[in-house]
Design brief:
By secondary structure, this protein is an all-alpha fold. The protein has one domain (27-273). The chain has helices at 8-11, 13-84, 91-101, 103-123, 131-148, 158-172, 176-185, 200-225, 233-237, 239-273. Mean pLDDT is 89; it is low at 1-10. Residues 200-273 form a coiled coil. It comes from Treponema primitia (strain ATCC BAA-887 / DSM 12427 / ZAS-2).
Length: 278
């Protein structure tokens, strides 16, 4: 066997280690891309909807009563201050001041309610796949990512870009039939194309680029997992802890409600005795 007919790996053994490292990095990157998109497009929405359904309304109610208690305390403070200084005051002026001071809290409550409504709408809207269909969706998408994504396939053209865009949209919408069709269209493309043998410098540069991308995606995936709503998944999976959290929220609501009732009584007494209101 002469050198020209020898397998490439045998003729260039020094290239095999960096090429294998590049293959391994591409495999890791493909898995991370799938995990990132799965978290972003599906898991986050699913976890948030489950969390809102389980205890989201209790959290919102607890926050609502907490802000109400703070507002009543501030109202009592303002009225008591006017009475102590013997200034004639109008309740409408105090209410206007409270609206300004508590505008931020009102916006947070409104945002909380909007998030809950949106999460519940997502829960009962869109395509619902069985576990088997969901597994197929992920498998098809993983294959398409490996074939089409520019981080994994250096050969790019307009057709590949359109296929990738359509694949991402189909995966985001859980359109299994569309993803099946796109997978057929992409059958001519190879998964995880090897870097052609060139210089060691080129291989080192490719490895460095892939490593940086892997590290960046690892951080992105970690940030998503550690932020709301994905950081609530462990709680949802633990029925006992979920019940404990619901009980804590009920206690908070009761405490804030009692505090609000006490403040309402004190305010009524304060205003009933005051001669400085108009």
């Amino acid at each position: 066997m002469n050198e020209e007919t020898m397998p490439e790996q045998s003729r260039y053994p020094e290239y095999e280690k960096p090429r294998q490292e590049i293959r391994d990095l591409r495999q890791s990157l493909a898995a991370l891309l799938l995990e990132h998109h799965e978290l972003e497009f599906h898991i986050r929405k699913k976890v948030e909807a489950e969390y809102v359904s389980a205890i989201g309304s209790l959290e919102h109610k607890a926050l609502e009563f907490q802000y109400k208690e703070l507002r009543l305390k501030r109202k009592e403070e303002l009225i008591q201050g006017r009475i102590n200084s013997r200034d004639v005051f109008a309740l409408s002026q105090i209410e206007a001041q409270l609206i300004g001071e508590f505008n931020g809290q009102n916006e947070k409550l409104s945002a909380s309610m909007s998030r809950m409504n949106a999460a519940l709408e997502r829960r009962f809207a869109g395509t619902v796949l069985s576990d088997r269909e969901e597994a197929e969706l992920n498998l098809l998408y993983s294959g398409l990512i490996k074939k089409l994504h520019p981080d994994l396939n250096p050969v790019q053209n307009e057709k590949i870009e359109k296929l990738l865009s359509a694949s991402i949209t189909a995966y985001k919408n859980a359109a299994l039939d569309t993803l099946r069709e796109l997978s057929v269209q992409a059958e001519g493309y190879k998964e995880l194309v090897d870097e052609p043998v060139g210089s060691m410098v080129k291989l080192a540069a490719t490895k460095e680029k892939l490593l940086a991308r892997v590290e960046s995606l690892q951080k992105t995936v970690g940030d998503i997992k550690n932020s709301y709503p994905c950081n609530k998944k462990a709680l949802l999976d633990d029925g006992e802890k979920l019940r404990e959290r619901a009980g804590e929220l009920v206690e908070q609501i009761q405490e804030h409600r009692k505090a609000c009732d006490d403040l309402d009584r004190r305010l009524a007494e304060l205003l009933g005795k005051s001669v400085w209101t108009k």
